[in-house]
Specification:
Elements: E1 8-13, H1 20-31, E2 36-38, H2 52-56, E3 60-63, E4 77-84, H3 87-98, H4 107-110, H5 115-124, H6 132-138, H7 145-155, E5 156-161, H8 165-175, H9 200-208, H10 210-228, H11 230-236
Parallel strand pairs: 1-3, 1-4, 2-3, 4-5
Amino acid sequence: MAFSFDEKIVMHTHVEKTAGSSLVRGLIRALGKEHVYDTRPPDRPKPDSLDTETKRQIYVLTGHFHFGTQDRHFDRKKVYIACVRPPLDRFRSYYNFVRVRPNHPGYSIVAGKTFGQVVEDVIGGKNARINLMARTLTGTPRPDRQHVLANVEKNYALVSPHDRVNETLRALVPLFGAQIRRRDFHMNKTEVDLAEDIGELADQFNAVNAIDDELYRFVSDRYETWLANLPERLNSTATVAA
């Protein structure tokens, strides 16, 4: 069955520093900027305030929203996609990206601190940020392992490892009835990457983010199968808002 944006809308749950911006860039180039609606800019109207015609023109909704939280604003079936990355690798990239951007919402958390100090904060301090990918891809504040893996398998058409986003675009775009004209869509790469050795903190970080770690390994193991069955998954995982 051909994919129809009259019947379906693609929902991209974008976790920072997982190659989500690269995925969005590729979709914009293929589908047109007018059809990919990014909720991240602070001055961008939120989906609940959009009129019917504007919402009809949206083929892909993307942003830092959690699974299921935007479904009620669209009558079409929802097809979910996402990208993931090894949790410590993702957080290191986040730190390096944010620490040189004073206008970023997370700047106050990392400003003037080493990577090790920020890791200490996020695994046990007031700025704790635990299993962010799992929470985003389930819409659940405290997801358990079984729920996370089951939700990804059942409700996401495709979740991509961050380093395979180009393959993801090459598989998705033709099924959306569009063409892809570039080989590499990676963007938002960190200009200065401080590879600070944080010693035992790395093990502690991975331990408290064990669900995110397992989520990434599960995605990596299942990715080829999902790609092989992508046409069917685009239909079988589509859900209707309650």
